[in-house]
Amino acid sequence: MDFLALSQQRYTTKHYDGNRKISQEHIDMLLEILRLTPSAVNIQPWHFYVGSSDAAKNLIRPCVLDFNHARLDGCSHFIVLCAKTSVSDEEFSAITKKEDADGRYSKAEVKNSVDEHRRYFADMHVKMGDFNEWTAKQTYLAMAALLYGAASLGIDSTPIEGMDYEKCDEILKLKEKSLRSVGIVTLGYRAKDDSNAKRPKSRLDKESIISFLE
To answer: pTM for this one?
Structure first.
């Protein structure tokens, strides 16, 4: 299925079939999609917490608002997407070292230049006071990749912002890890009576949201 068809057919699942579980093979594929998500200057400012057991659901349940409990309870898996609130010198160096190991640099001076540029760009956002917003925006790219990656595998999903972020950060002890939660995605297979699956998709017309510059 091409990406346009995925976009036309994908929808936000409201009720899951709690008896159907996603295979480990497909979970591994989705995690690889998350890993490969693009980010500004390849900073990869995120961490993902994956859960599927009842214990994991109960752990995270207190930070999910009550109207989203059905999504959490019925899903096969969920992923908490977190964005970094700072990047250490060691983390910057690890990114550059991995890029070098993956063969991205033919010369040391190019590697050093890219590393310097990445640090400069991140520091620019620190000085502008929008570093957390910037990393959250990058993490939303990962969320989008996950939603459509799941759809490509016939897996349904629900992006959740109806949550208590501070409570989530507390539960997962994110502050001491220089992370903060930005959303949860539940994954699984729709229930037969999921009413949202029967509603036609509705979006504004292209003419109202797209302008061509001349």
So the answer is: 0.96
